[in-house]
Design a protein that fits this description.
CATH architecture: Sandwich
Distance between the termini: 43 Å
CATH class: Mainly Beta
Number of helices: 1
Shape: globular
Helix content: under 10%
Low-confidence stretches: 1-29, 214-218
Number of domains: 1
CATH topology: Jelly Rolls
Strand content: 15-25%
Strand order of the largest sheet: 2-5-8-17-13-14
Order of helices and strands: HEEEEEEEEEEEEEEEEEEE
Largest sheet: 6 strands, antiparallel
Number of strands: 19
Length: about 240
């Protein structure tokens, strides 16, 4: 059972009732390392939570919104998931922006989504993952989705987010915009024929009943840590 592993993992999350939430971020620098050794401005990451619609068994990290999803990822590596996340819950949805910045289609990977998956027992073929569907929009109205092909509880999950461990962390100097080393789930706008995106939407695809009790450290939904723009309109 998926929740069994969450009980034993560092990425253990809490459970609460569902309901709509809204929050707005601040425009402050984060000092995340860039590929060239410099630092990245705040708008290379999430600067605003446009909306959050929580699913069942959500709530972990909500008290730290929006800061918990702003700035660079706090990766835990291959063997443990980060606790610097907000849980969307079953079927939960979050819409985010990078004001005043935007993602643009450039060479290769354009942005990276960071969740908190990990290898169970260090086995790369046994992944604790909670996939989510990623969609982008330039106006916040019309959306184009990356095909999230999660149909079972076993990888691979195609263009879903939430199944590659996160290695970038401000404490280890690994750049969050270097797709070769950062970890997380990389996306290229060219794959869906989009040139620019100012908004990203993530919808949890893990639809499972919450374990009975509701007071255990459990998780049933996508856990967002951060999003980093690789190819930015305002680099």
């Amino acid at each position: 059972m998926r929740w069994f592993y969450a009980l034993a993992a560092v990425a253990a999350l809490g459970c609460s009732s569902s309901g709509p939430e809204q929050s707005e971020g601040a425009d402050a620098g984060f000092g995340a390392p860039a590929v060239d050794g410099g630092t990245l401005p705040a708008d290379r990451f999430i600067t605003k939570v446009v909306s959050l619609t929580r699913g069942a068994c959500s709530g972990y990290g909500l008290e730290n919104m929006p800061k918990v999803v702003e700035g660079p990822p706090i990766g835990g590596g291959a063997d443990q998931g980060s606790k610097d996340v907000v849980s969307l819950g079953n079927g939960g949805e979050i819409v985010l922006s990078f004001e005043p910045n935007a993602i643009v289609d450039g060479d290769g990977v354009d942005f990276i989504v960071f969740e908190n998956p990990f290898f169970i027992g260090g086995n790369p073929n046994d992944i604790y993952a909670e996939p989510g569907e990623v969609s982008v929009s330039d106006d916040g109205v019309s959306w184009t989705s990356f095909p999230c092909t999660q149909t079972t509880q076993n990888p691979p999950y195609g263009m879903c987010a939430g199944w590659h461990p996160v290695y970038s962390n401000p404490d280890n100097g690994i750049s969050p915009i270097d797709p070769k080393t950062a970890g997380g789930d990389a996306f290229d706008l060219a794959d869906i024929g989009v040139k620019r995106a100012r908004y990203v939407r993530i919808v949890d695809k893990v639809i499972e009943p919450c374990p009975e009790g509701g007071d255990a450290p459990i998780t049933n939904g996508f856990d967002l840590d951060a999003i980093a723009i690789v190819n930015a309109a305002l680099p």
